[in-house]
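Journal club prep — side note

Before the paper discussion, L.F. wants everyone to see what a predicted structure for a comparable chain looks like in token form. Sequence:
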Amino acid sequence: MKNSYLAGVFLAFISGIIWGFSGVCGEYLFTNKHFDPFWLTSVRLLASGLILFTIVFTKSKFKVFAIFSDRSALFDLGLYAVFGLALCQLTYYFTISYSNAAIATTLQYTAPAMIMIFVCIKERNFPTFREFIALVFATSGIFFFATHGNFQNLVISKEALIIGLLSALCVVIYSIAPIKISQKYGTNAVLALGLIMSGGVFWIFYAIFGGEILPSIDFSAFLVICAIVFLGTICGFSLYMIAVNFIGPKRASLVASIEPLMAALFGHFWLGSKFVFFDYLGFTLIILCAVLLSKK
């Protein structure tokens, strides 16, 4: 049990690092290559889903389709695919396009508070003292990082704020919706089908409304897209879903809140972002949150 718990914390931590890097990759494509967030979301989801599905099908054959005979599970899969995976990625990328990766991840990580409230209401209990302190560390770290200690210092557009909070709500959905079906049909099978469903729907809508199907892609953009697909989507979501199965959505989302820190660090070393004292204070609090939750 203890090993499973530590493994869950570790996997959630790694998923946060991967997502932080993936977010900066998206920022690079939007600012330097002028990509459409809708196109990138569609390609990311569909390509990742097809690759992961091939891997799952090779191992389990037609068992991967078993979920389609279960109406209740199919509803959860659709909820997870559209309102979890698809809208989470789309709103996240649009937030980046209106601001940057660090702000987008900061807004998205208001999700742990939403998840904790939801789970506590559902289970009719209060968070443990350690969970409460970890939540305080996480939210305080995000506050200092985003505002430098003063809400008036949060320079962000209304579009970025609203869409960023919607992204956080979608995090709640993809953290909770697939738990039962993942345990029954397998994490990777559910993720693969969810990615294909969400990516396919978005791609059809994008094509119908006149989106550019194949924009100009140079070698550097191709490498960044591959990193987003393989690392940010396949690896990131797989590890996070496994972590949720081990330690639950509350702890997994809190540990993965390392993502804003990693987005800021990758942005600093790659895109030249600058930091001040309050940034480092926020980073420290977020790391303390992860450390606190690593002890059961």
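L.F.'s comment for the group: The radius of gyration is 18 Å. Keep this in mind when we get to the figures.
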